[in-house]
Amino acid sequence: MTPSPLRIVIAEDAAIMRDGLTQTLTRRGHDVVAAVADAESLRREVDAHLPDVAIIDVRMPPTHTDEGLRAAQAIHNDHPKVGVLVFSQYIETQAAAELFAGAPAGVGYLLKDRVADVSEFVEAISRVAHGGTVLDPEVVRQLLRTSRRGDFLATLTPREREVLSLIAQGRSNTAIADALVISPRVVEKHVASIFAKLGLAPSDNDNRRVIAALKYLES
Amino acid sequence: MLTGSAPSRTTATPGGAHPWPVPKVYPWLRGHPTVVDATLAAALFLASIAELFLASIAGTQNWPPDVVVGTAAFSAALAVTVVPRRRYPEAAFAVAIALVAVQIAFGTQPSNATPPVRALEPSAADAAILVLVYTLAAYRPRRISVTGLAVTLLAVAAAIGRWAPAHAPHPGAPLLGAVVGLGGSALIAWVLGDHMAYRRAYYASLEDRAERAEAERDAQARIAAAAERARELQEQRARAVDESAARLRRIERDLHDGAQVRLAALALALGEIKENLAVAAGGADDDGRIALLVAAAHENAKQTLAALRDLARGIHPPVLDRGLGAALSTLAEACAIPVALSVSIAERPSPAIESIAYFCAAELLANVAKHSRASRATISAGDQGGRLLMTVTDDGVGGARLSPGGGLAGLLERVQTVDGRLELDSPPGGPTIVTIELPRHA
Question: Model's pTM, two decimal places?
Fold first, then answer.
């Protein structure tokens, strides 16, 4: 599905999930260069292999709280070219905010459940590996619901809200077109209309577009 | 007496405070006052008789038998008044003073022209009046005893006043002797009685004080025991609260590391199968039945994952491990209306307290979203006087009440398990302010 194989490091303390992910990704032609169970080994393997992307569980030994999150931030600082996809049993908006502060290129944050939709998950990994942004629909849903820009959001049509949600998740126009089963040209029209209504500068760059959308929703 | 143990107060106890055995006769006498008083009456009567006898032996008086009998009868009447003195002091005194008045009126005469009734002349039995003055002073209020003393002194004055003129040839010394002897005796009797009353009151007060001191000691011992018990219970409760919080956290972690991750891996595997079947569609499976079954199983696994996540989060929200601030911010973000959050907690409370604060905030925000029709809410949490103070306000319609069995009552119960406080201020028309105060540790 993905043309170029990715070099991947997995950090997940549950062996069953670690192995499952490794097999799935390997079957799809990717190269899992290391699969570890704690944050310290993760840092070591990333330093050694400089992979395209690291998939990181938030809760890992020793304290099982937010080791993964801290490690992801450190890796993102030390190696901006290494994508980090944090996945977690729970979605916490504060964790998302910390992760996406600054320049969130090559950053992803997904609910662990998303592995069930295998292709979408692998696609998200690929996007993060290529410097894109992936935000869990759950976080986007909360952002849209609680954004102080509620009045402006109310001016959007239901379809435009769907599109905005997908933009915030980090989808490209093509992906949005696929997801909504509409033509890419219709998506472009929606995007232009949304950005005009919200007073945002239009941007063709997917990543900058996500950031603009997120900043708008969070401000 | 001072030990306050009544039965042993007068008996000699071996190894007690008395260096020699106290005669058993004193307690016996104290136990039989009527016998004592009857003996006293008999003594007074006998003294009168002895006086008559001695006078006739000395030959100073030559009394006919009828006078002797009259004198004896009158003396007996006077002496008898001391018998009921303890039970009826005033009545006994009144009777005695009446008898004495009769004696003064008829037994003495100012001049020899009218001779006194000889059977009514004052006798030794008149000392009964001294006993009765003593009794009044010892047993009755001072107001009464002073009146008795005054009456007695008047009687003495009257007696001397009537007696003196008949003995005019020799006034001087005998007169002075009579005044000092009779008046002084009455006064001394009163002073002795009064002192007795004072001593009794003093002993009673000592005894009372000793009893009170003992009662106070007992009360203090009981209070100390109760305080000790309260402290024990408090410690037990704190342990129970902490243990239960720790157990819930463990259960959540077990779910996370066990069921949740296995289910996620299963969903991943089902997802793989589903996608592989889709790729191979039209192959072995005739009408796509297996694909449908797998898709259903896949969907089931995903829904179970979501349900399990909600369950685990209800048991112990993992975000609490990152502190109350992070947990409250997640709550605020998830609320349907905008929530302004301000948290300033210098020292983290114990996990059990953080958990109570978190679940209170969650319930209150859910209430705000459901019932208040508010457009915004605020949560503030901070330290105040060593305790955690959290306030949740909204600009809704107000009118919230703490009804039994309601959500707010449940919160109150939860807060009270750690001696916390919950205050609700929600006038009709709003705003609603809920203030929760919790100790830093259970």
Answer: 0.64
